[in-house]
Amino acid sequence: MFFQSLFGTYIEYRKVFCELKLSERQKKIVEIVKAKQPLSGEKISELLDISRATLRPDLSFLTLVGILKATPKVGYTYSGSDLESVFFFDTFRKKVADIMTSPVLVTSDSYIQDAIITLFMYDADVIYVIDEEKLLLGIMSRKDLLRASLNSNIASTPVAVCMTRMPHIKTCHQNMNILEAAVLLQDYAIDSLPIVEEKNERQILGSVTKSALLDYIIQQARSTEVNREEE
Fold first, then answer.
1. Distance set, CA 61 to CA 20, 77, 86, 161 (Å)
2. φ and ψ at residue 160, rounded to 5 degrees
3. Residue 207's beta-bridge partner residues?
4. Which residues on adjacent β-strands are paired with residue 139?
5. What residue spans of 37-97 are helical by DSSP H?
6. In this predicted model, what pLDDT tens digit does every residue of 182-213 receive, in sequence order?
């Protein structure tokens, strides 16, 4: 539910501000207003040495997205609400390569008991099964291993019995952003995505999990709040 709510909020932001990126002039306007607020449009024009007509579209945009607030007979003030916009855009544009972790691996000749021990040794959400060439063969979640432990002799049953095999594994690439990865996790109700080479879907490079994404988002949100308090 948390992810659904968070991504829903992001989508609403994205509809309006899909390509939100301030120009150099807009950044200067924000800096000036923050330092000298409140300021009239005329005063901002003087400080930047540009005409009111040239300045008007920038002020309209900055007001629309909530970075500046326009008050009659007072002027423009810095509202600070751009922090939320920056949080959503900077956070969800982050590449999965920046937050991926090393995958926890077992070989295809391992037994379920070995996989369970490895899972808990590394406190992992999933385990990836590789062949002798270290290429991805399958994936096992905690739930998969729990079910297998209840219905088989785990000391002598190979992991192949309970793993999900390629090509039925959802994967992502290093250059995908975390929103794209999160959408895959949400849409397919899975807990983890192997990060693979684009030219070889079986060459595993790392892993990104739902819990890792949540940790990163919370960390960024806290950082954004700290920045707000310091301003």
1. 10, 14, 15, 58
2. -60, -25
3. 101, 194
4. 128, 164
5. 41-48, 52-64, 82-92
6. 888 888 888 899 999 999 999 999 999 988 88
**What are the structure tokens assigned to 11, written together?**
């989508």
CA separation for the pair 190, 208 (Å, rounded): 11
Can you give 118-166 as a three-state secondary structure string?
A: HHHHCCCCEEEEECCCCCEEEEEEHHHHHHHHHHCCCCCCEHHHCCEEC
pLDDT single digits (tens) 103-136: 999 999 999 999 999 999 999 989 999 999 999 9
How far apart are alpha carbons 198 and 63 in whole angstroms? 42
Cα angle 185-187-189, degrees, rounded to a multiple of 5 = 60
Distance between CA 78 and CA 30 in Å, rounded?
Answer: 7
Q: Could you tell me whether strands 204-209 and 192-196 are parallel, antiparallel, or unpaired per DSSP bridges?
A: antiparallel
For residue 105, the cross-strand partners are 128
Residue 75, sorted as left (phi over 0), alpha (psi -120 to 50) or beta, turns out to be left
- Residue 171 and residue 194 in contact, taking contact as beta carbons nearer than 8 Å: yes
CB 141 within 8 A of CB 126: yes
**Against a cut of 0.85, is the pTM above it?**
no
In whole angstroms, what is the distance from residue 183 CA to residue 28 CA? 36
- The label of the residue with tokens 């983890």 reads 192
Cβ atoms < 10 Å from Cβ of 13: 17
Q: Are strands 126-130 and 105-107 parallel, antiparallel or unpaired?
A: parallel
